């Protein structure tokens, strides 16, 4: 018998697990600031990711690597102040959890204490096992991230589709199982073949959220600035643009400049 899913006043890690159990898809978007987070949360999104894509989108870096823990805490605390409903997951930045599980725990604790985030996300599988175990032992929920993991971009060399070859696909499947076994509450799969992603989602009981991983998973995530069409140089196949804000904002800015230069703004009603 299928049980009707509850409408969640506040989304928790438990809600996400129930959503998977009831075959209800999970919608996740990024936010890095108060104003955007307020709009995204008010629209009814399930999960907000304070992604390290802030490094690209907010700071203009080519990769996610330069983002610091202090910067991530600043972004996440701005988002948290806006939220009424969504679960807020915060990326652990590059260099704050790889290699040393004690400093990984210290980084995760700083995120939770100083930003008020609800969970952390970490890229990688067996190679970061010790850090995952230590962070989970402190009661901090972890979302895993496999496939294209942008923090390892210099190892891959390109942002092309991952795990097309059998060996890499096998390692990804093993890592996914391991993350579930260790206690991660969900998993992001980025830019891998749809068939492989579907297989992983079917094999796991925790929710699998895809980006460029097809429709056979339990939910989807996009970078908000990409789906709004603000980052107009970026055209991956998986990206659906819901607006062309780059053009709309440019038009608005041009009209404002014209109005100021011509003396049309402000008019009689727009002054004291
Ligand atoms: O940082 C980010 O925005 C991400 C998503 C692409 C999943 O990790």
Number of helices: 11
Second CATH tier, the architecture of the largest domain: Alpha-Beta Barrel
Integer-rounded radius of gyration:
20 Å
* Secondary-structure content class: alpha/beta
Shape: globular
The number of distinct structural domains comes to 2
Give the fraction of residues assigned to helices.
Answer: 40-55%
Which characteristics define this entry?
272 residues; alpha/beta; TIM Barrel; 2 domains; eight-stranded parallel barrel; 11 helices; 14% strand; globular; binds 3-methyl-2-oxobutanoic acid
Describe what is shown at a glance.
The chain is of the alpha/beta class and 272 residues long.
Describe, in plain words, how this protein is organized in 3D.
The protein starts with 12 loop residues before the first helix and ends in a 10-residue tail after the last helix. It has an 8-stranded parallel β-barrel, surrounded by 7 helices. The protein has 2 domains: 13-226, Phosphoenolpyruvate-binding domains (TIM Barrel), CATH 3.20.20; 228-263. Helix 9 links the parallel strand 6 and strand 7. The radius of gyration is 20 Å and the shape is globular. Helix 5 packs across helix 6. The chain has 272 residues and is α/β, with parallel strands linked by helices. The chain is 41% helix and 14% strand. The structure holds 3-methyl-2-oxobutanoic acid (KIV). Residues 30, 49, 51-53, 91, 188, 190, 211, 221, 223 line the site of 3-methyl-2-oxobutanoic acid (KIV).
């Amino acid at each position: 018998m299928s049980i009707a899913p509850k409408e969640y006043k506040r989304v928790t890690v438990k809600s996400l697990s129930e959503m998977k159990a009831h075959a209800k898809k999970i919608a996740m978007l990024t936010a890095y600031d108060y104003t955007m987070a307020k709009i995204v949360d008010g629209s009814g999104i399930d999960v907000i990711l304070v992604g390290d894509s802030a490094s690209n989108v907010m700071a203009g870096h080519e990769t996610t690597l330069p983002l610091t823990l202090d910067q991530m805490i600043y972004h996440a605390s701005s988002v948290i102040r806006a939220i009424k409903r969504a679960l807020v997951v915060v990326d652990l930045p590059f260099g704050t959890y790889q290699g040393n599980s004690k400093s990984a725990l210290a980084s995760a604790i700083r995120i939770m204490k100083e930003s008020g985030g609800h969970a952390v996300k970490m890229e990688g599988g067996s190679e970061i096992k010790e850090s995952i175990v230590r962070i989970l032992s402190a009661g901090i929920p972890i979302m895993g991230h496999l496939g294209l993991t942008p923090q390892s971009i210099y190892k891959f060399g390109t942002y092309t589709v991952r795990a097309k070859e059998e060996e890499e696909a096998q390692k990804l499947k093993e890592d996914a199982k391991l993350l579930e076994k260790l206690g991660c509450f969900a998993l992001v799969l980025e830019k891998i073949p749809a068939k492989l992603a579907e297989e992983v989602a079917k094999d796991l009981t925790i929710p699998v959220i895809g980006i460029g991983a097809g429709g056979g998973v339990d939910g989807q995530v996009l970078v908000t600035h990409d789906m709004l069409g603000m980052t107009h140089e970026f055209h991956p196949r998986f990206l659906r643009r819901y607006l062309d804000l780059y053009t709309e904002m440019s038009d608005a800015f041009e009209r404002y400049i014209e109005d100021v230069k011509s003396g049309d703004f402000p008019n009689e009603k727009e002054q004291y």
